[in-house]
Every structure is written in structure tokens, then in C-alpha cells.
Amino acid sequence: MTYVVIDGCVNCKHTDCVEVCPVDCFYEGKNFLVIHPDECIDCGVCEPECPVDAIKPDTEPGMDKWVEINARYAELWPNITVKKEAMPEAEKYADETGKFEKYFSEEPGTGDE
């Protein structure tokens, strides 16, 4: 089992989760975070930290797509271990659905720079 970041993170990118991760398995894109599934130790401490409920265990139905997305971008984006401010319009996008298809960017974030 691993945890994955899902649609709710897009254009919000709260980083409360990265600070509590004991193995630093979060990676940052321009408008989305991912969890490296091979690094995640399944402790679950990140899940309750997400204010938009965008972290789920891969055992929930429909998570296969998200495992693939998280694995792919964790290999491409920089590691993030320190909390940053959420995206400027995070509140506006917090309850929107279908954000991945509408807004997702493959561009990397800055990581811990």
C-alpha cells in the first residue's frame, strides 16, 4: 500500500503534508504535489494534514490512475520537504472537481530551493 495525491491538490498545493512526512517522499510540480509510491512507508500521517482531502490510500477504488500519475511525476519533479504557502487562489479552487483534466501542469515546481 502507498498513499497518493489526487485531483483536489491541483491549483491548491497546500504543503502541510510534506512537513510531517518522515521519509520525505513528496515531489513538487508547478500546481500539484505527488508522493513517490516506492518511497512512501504507508504511515498515513500526511492524509489528515491535507485541508482539501487530496491524499488517499491506494487501496480505495479508482486509485490506479493516481498511483501511475504519482509515480511518473515523482521521477521528474524536485523533492519538497518544507512547508510553503498554498497557491494564491487555493480557496477559489478548493471545492472544484475535475481539476486535473482542466488545470494540471507537467512543469516542475521549485522543490526545497
Assembly type: single chain
Query: What structural category do the secondary elements indicate?
Result: alpha+beta
Gross CATH architecture: 2-Layer Sandwich
Radius of gyration (CA) equals 12 Å
Give the number of DSSP strands. Answer: 4
Q: The biggest beta sheet, please?
A: 2 strands, antiparallel
3D shape? globular
Task: Give the ordered list of helices and strands.
Answer: EHEEEHHH
- Work out the helicity level: 10-25%
- Structurally, the number of domains stands at 1
CATH class: Alpha Beta
Task: List segments where confidence is low: pLDDT < 50 over at least 5 consecutive residues.
Answer: none
Within the largest sheet, what's the order of strands?
A: 1-4
- Number of DSSP helices? 4
Average pLDDT figure? 97
Describe this structure in words.
The chain has one domain (3-86): 2-Layer Sandwich (Alpha-Beta Plaits), CATH 3.30.70. The protein contains 4 helices and 4 strands, in the order E-H-E-E-E-H-H-H. It has helices at residues 16-20, 64-74, 90-93, 99-103, and strands spanning 3-5, 26-28, 33-35, 55-57. The strands form 2 sheets. A two-stranded antiparallel sheet has the order 1-4. The chain has a two-stranded antiparallel ribbon with strand order 2-3. Strand 2 and strand 3 form a beta hairpin. It is globular. The model has no long low-confidence stretch (mean pLDDT 97).
SSE layout and pairing:
Blueprint: E1 3-5, H1 16-20, E2 26-28, E3 33-35, E4 55-57, H2 64-74, H3 90-93, H4 99-103
Antiparallel strand pairs: 1-4, 2-3
